[in-house]
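Go through the following before class.
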Amino acid sequence: MPRRRITQTDVAAMAGVSQATVSFVLNGSTPAGVRISEETRQRVLDAIRITGYTANPAAQRLAGGLAQILGVFTYEATFPRPSRDFYGPFLTGIEHAAERLGVDLLLFTSAPVEDGRRRLTREGWQRLGVADGCLLLGQHEHRGELQHLLDTNYPFVFIGKRGSDGGRLPYVGADYVSGTVRQIDRLVALGHRRIGYVGLRGTDQPTLDRVEGYRDAMKAHGLTTRFVELEDTAATAAEIVEQRFTAVVVAPENHPEELADELAARGVRVPDDVSVLLLGQPHHLRRGGRAWSGFSVPREEMGARALYLLSRLAADDGPRRERDARRPTAVTEAELHQVLACPDVEGATLAPPGRTAR
């Protein structure tokens, strides 16, 4: 369980000095008549480094109380682009939850970009201290940064299932495993036996979970797993025809509309000849496009649930006299790791085996 945040009192105890001395060292100045030796100053700095203490300007201004501000940090660009709106539903759920809780949101956008993704290094740690806690989301997080947040007891919640040493990392994720298993069950119930998995097998958690669900379900039905991992959509369509699949499950980021077009160009129709189930709905639907069968990811609910959890962790971290009765603390071990069900979508791309099977 996340512990309380490191305070100046903890730093003072480790350094063997008063809290006032710690404050003087942090502020870089001392009042008239007060002298701090270089040895004492270095002990304080060493204690700050060891404990990972980060000053919280907002909390200092409120004399140790909560600032009623919760942060949001994303490892990729946040606002929608013309072709992609991955974060939109998350942010909608977060905003609605913030309104109900009566807290303000602070979007952290100034973190430096390193190797194509944002990093919390350097001044990023200090900036997080403005908020009582922070939501983190993104497909390319930095594990070392998450571990640092755990080690310094800063309240945070990751949106998306994530692992950590000792299972201490709080998250609200989607149940891709069970969702994928159900799609295979749907196909088998209709008579499909040659079912392929289309998509690159990366190391991100959603992909790992989808592959796990596919493997488990195929094994449970006594069927052979078959993967198509080609990046080129035309080559993928050709492989589906070559493998004589009657159905495929596809991650939504693998351009399902373009894939269906390529299949049609080869005389293979969806779903008459091959059923296509998406393991999560597309971020943007093509105008006049297909109604895809599969499951959807409850991104808006994930955002809301994550903010509720963060609010409770932050309240538990602050002084008891400042806690809001609307946000009970007592976070259980199970509540730290929430996985939400992915509801099935009926769609129009699922049918019994057709001409290809015959």
The two ends are 56 Å apart (CA to CA).
